[in-house]
């Protein structure tokens, strides 16, 4: 979590510094694509704040109304972030671009736009480098897509997607804005805004898909499940593990339920002792499993 906070803070600072300068440059030079980039950076800044809020809320201690804690707050706010990227980032950028293509306006001297874009590329690129570096620490040898699919911490890959989309958007804007000015085709500036919007919509769909899956309750990996089954069945009191259910309450907290068929000759006290043994071994070998519920069949 500390590593994720580092990438979130770096992205927050970068986007906060960039957003204002993009709006000023876009308004001064009459560039739709720069205004879209300003919207993008503003949305990203808001997203970092929401992620930090979600991380803070997820650490709240369990209480009477939430006995398993507030870990899923992180998943909820990650889903909110994906919706904001779609609605405020993608949709507004596409609208701004289409409007500028229908009613094109000739761009004034784009010098300040280029200065802002180059500085933005440096800041966003630095933030992306930090985010990728921190995410690589959590991949454990998996390829990128598998690491994202199997990750239970959306804050680890969400910043990578946001910063990656930001860098891609900046490159698109730089190329098409330059062509728009040199060829005197103002519609190209609007087209750049539309492409930036489409990039954000694509990213929002991926993030929404992963955040929704976590919010709905993803379980432990099949290989981990098999190890726990073998561990339970190695106890002399266990006849067979009938079923195993699990869900991630947060990236660092798993709720596990085992339905076990114990030996018929055992009395209540012996079964209770066996349950305590199995629970202790599971929690020792799998630290993320905070709650172990064992139901005799």
TrEMBL record:
<feature type="transmembrane region" description="Helical">
    <location>
        <begin position="7"/>
        <end position="28"/>
    </location>
</feature>
<dbReference type="GO" id="GO:0006829">
    <property type="term" value="P:zinc ion transport"/>
</dbReference>
<dbReference type="GO" id="GO:0016020">
    <property type="term" value="C:membrane"/>
</dbReference>
<dbReference type="InterPro" id="IPR002524">
    <property type="entry name" value="Cation_efflux"/>
</dbReference>
<dbReference type="InterPro" id="IPR036837">
    <property type="entry name" value="Cation_efflux_CTD_sf"/>
</dbReference>
<feature type="transmembrane region" description="Helical">
    <location>
        <begin position="74"/>
        <end position="95"/>
    </location>
</feature>
<dbReference type="InterPro" id="IPR040177">
    <property type="entry name" value="SLC30A9"/>
</dbReference>
<keyword id="KW-1133">Transmembrane helix</keyword>
<feature type="transmembrane region" description="Helical">
    <location>
        <begin position="111"/>
        <end position="132"/>
    </location>
</feature>
<dbReference type="GO" id="GO:0008324">
    <property type="term" value="F:monoatomic cation transmembrane transporter activity"/>
</dbReference>
<dbReference type="Pfam" id="PF01545">
    <property type="entry name" value="Cation_efflux"/>
</dbReference>
<feature type="domain" description="Cation efflux protein transmembrane">
    <location>
        <begin position="10"/>
        <end position="216"/>
    </location>
</feature>
<keyword id="KW-0812">Transmembrane</keyword>
<dbReference type="InterPro" id="IPR027469">
    <property type="entry name" value="Cation_efflux_TMD_sf"/>
</dbReference>
<protein>
    <submittedName>
        <fullName>Cation diffusion facilitator family transporter</fullName>
    </submittedName>
</protein>
<keyword id="KW-0472">Membrane</keyword>
<feature type="transmembrane region" description="Helical">
    <location>
        <begin position="190"/>
        <end position="208"/>
    </location>
</feature>
<keyword id="KW-0813">Transport</keyword>
<dbReference type="InterPro" id="IPR058533">
    <property type="entry name" value="Cation_efflux_TM"/>
</dbReference>
<feature type="transmembrane region" description="Helical">
    <location>
        <begin position="157"/>
        <end position="178"/>
    </location>
</feature>
């Amino acid at each position: 979590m500390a590593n994720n906070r580092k990438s979130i803070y770096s992205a927050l600072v970068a986007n906060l510094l960039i957003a204002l300068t993009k709006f000023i440059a876009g308004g001064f030079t009459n560039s739709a694509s720069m205004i879209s980039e300003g919207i993008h950076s503003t949305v990203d800044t808001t997203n970092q704040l929401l992620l930090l809020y979600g991380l803070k809320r997820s650490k709240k201690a369990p209480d009477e109304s939430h006995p398993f804690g507030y870990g899923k707050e992180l998943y909820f706010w990650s889903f909110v972030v994906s919706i904001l990227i779609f609605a405020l980032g993608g949709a507004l950028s596409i609208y701004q671009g289409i409007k500028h293509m229908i009613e094109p306006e000739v761009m004034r001297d784009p010098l300040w736009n280029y200065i802002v874009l180059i500085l933005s590329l440096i800041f966003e690129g630095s933030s992306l480098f930090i985010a990728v570096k921190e995410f690589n620490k959590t991949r454990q040898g998996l390829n990128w897509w598998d690491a994202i699919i199997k990750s239970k911490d959306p804050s680890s890959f969400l910043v990578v997607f946001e910063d990656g989309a930001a860098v891609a958007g900046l490159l698109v804007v730089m190329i098409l804005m330059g062509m728009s000015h040199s060829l005197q085709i103002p519609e190209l500036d609007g087209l750049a805004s539309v492409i930036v919007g489409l990039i954000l919509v694509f990213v929002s769909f991926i993030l929404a898909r992963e955040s929704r899956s976590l919010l709905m309750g993803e379980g432990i990996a099949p290989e981990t499940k098999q190890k726990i089954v073998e561990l339970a069945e190695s106890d002399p009191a266990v006849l067979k593990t009938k079923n195993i259910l699990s869900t991630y309450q947060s990236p660092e907290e798993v709720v596990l339920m085992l339905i076990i068929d114990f030996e018929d000759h055992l009395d209540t006290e012996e079964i209770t002792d066996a349950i305590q043994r199995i629970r202790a071994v599971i929690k020792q070998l799998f630290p993320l499993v905070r709650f172990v519920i064992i139901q005799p069949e």
